[in-house]
Amino acid sequence: MSRIEYSKKVMEHFTNPRNVGTVDDADGIGTVGNPVCGDMMEISLKVEDGRIEDIKFRTFGCASAIATTSMLTEIIKGKTIEEAENISWDDVVKSLDGLPPVKVHCSHLAIDGLRKALYEYYRKRQIYRPDLIPKDEESHHESSPECE
Questions:
Q1: Distance (Å, whole) CA 16 – CA 103
Q2: Which has the closest alpha carbon to 95: 68, 113, 77, 64?
Q3: For the whole model, what pTM was predicted?
Q4: 18 Cβ contact list (under 8 Å, min separation 6)
């Protein structure tokens, strides 16, 4: 088995994750993951005046899963809902100075958790946004070597 090399930013967010926990009285909560693989995450957010006022996460998983979710919360905090909808997995990976190819699926999970939290935010306001529901959150893991 080969050693996985992480960037300094990934290691910093893994060893010192930001925004860990849950948001009290959250406007949206997104839970995603695959218990077989071991990566599970929950993102909760609070919206005020159309902006993400607070965002927190709880992640059980590898260094990449924790680091990508931590970085995502840093990117999203203070953004408008519309800006948050447009954040991509590539934005998160670039902000971390990259991820090893076998770990990129973890950044997809972070984005899926955000999209589910945003979906819940809209659902509570009776706004139907099926485009925010991840197509198949477990598909990112089915082809991942660490899930076999």
A1: 19
A2: 68
A3: 0.85
A4: 70, 73, 74
Distances (CA, A) of 107 to 68, 114, 125: 5, 11, 28
42: exposed, middle or buried (Cβ count in 10 Å: 0-12, 13-18, 19+): buried
Q: What percent of the chain has pLDDT over 90?
A: 61
Domains of the chain, CATH where assigned: 8-127 (3.90.1010.10)
- Position 69 pLDDT exceeds 50: yes
Angle (CA) 61 58 51, round 5°: 130
Convert 8-40 to b/e letters by CB count within 10 Å (16 or more is b).
eebebbbeebbbeeebeebbbbbbbbbeebebb
Alpha-helical (H) ranges within 4-62 are 8-15
Instruction: Kindly tell me if the per-residue pLDDT of 71 is higher than 50.
Output: yes
Phi, psi torsion values for 16, nearest 5 degrees: -140, 65
* Residues in a beta bridge with 50: none
Supply the residues annotated as catalytic: 37, 106
Q: What are phi and psi of 4, to 5 degrees?
A: -95, 130
Q: What is the pLDDT of residue 2?
A: 62
What is residue 146's predicted lDDT score, i.e. its pLDDT? Answer: 46
